[in-house]
């Protein structure tokens, strides 16, 4: 059986905070102490409501970030973003960047994925410029954070493109590398 066959038969269900908590526990459970695992737990108040698919991406962002204009104006740090959007692929990242035009206005968006963009180029861009929104893949974001090219201290929103399925019907969290 292929994973796509299994996923095709299962109805897509919206992600909930408990899904992310379970993934964190499974991933870190074997090599962390009880206290460290407890520190990884996020309260439900840390999570915003998921897009119930009645919204476009831009209208969803407007709903969950009503004070975006103020946040955007007050952001002055280089090597950081106010909003980080994580997607399963570079193509999906581009799709989301195009669909957020009504929301982003004149703020700057940086593409954080590996397809046709070298990591050194992204590091230079983050160092020299100021960006409000970063959209990319977990692998590239992890690499940038590990090399101290991306600082997450001023990140207020992290959006997971949780429920979108690729042509193989996999969600971002179904991919083992993630």
TrEMBL record:
Gene3D superfamilies membership: P-loop containing nucleotide triphosphate hydrolases
Highest taxon in the source lineage: Eukaryota
GO cellular component entries: 90S preribosome; nucleus
InterPro entries the record matches: Cms1 (IPR032704), P-loop_NTPase (IPR027417)
A family per Pfam: CMS1
Protein name per its UniProtKB record: CMS1 protein
Organism of origin: Loxia curvirostra
């Amino acid at each position: 059986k292929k994973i796509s066959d299994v996923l095709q038969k299962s109805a897509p269900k919206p992600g909930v905070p408990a899904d992310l908590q379970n993934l964190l526990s499974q991933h870190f459970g074997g090599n962390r102490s009880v206290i460290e695992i407890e520190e990884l737990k996020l309260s439900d108040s840390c999570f915003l409501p998921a897009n119930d698919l009645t919204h476009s991406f831009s209208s969803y962002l407007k709903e969950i970030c009503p004070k975006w204009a103020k946040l955007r104006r007050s952001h002055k740090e280089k090597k950081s973003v106010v909003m980080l959007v994580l997607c399963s692929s570079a193509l999906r990242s581009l799709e989301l960047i195009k669909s957020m035009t009504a929301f982003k206005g004149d703020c700057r968006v940086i593409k954080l994925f590996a397809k046709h963009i070298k990591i050194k180029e992204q590091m230079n861009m983050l160092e020299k410029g100021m960006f409000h929104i970063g959209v990319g893949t977990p692998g590239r974001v992890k690499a940038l954070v590990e090399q101290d090219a991306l600082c997450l201290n001023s990140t207020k929103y992290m959006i997971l493109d949780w429920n979108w399925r690729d042509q193989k019907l996999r969600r971002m969290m179904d991919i083992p590398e993630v």
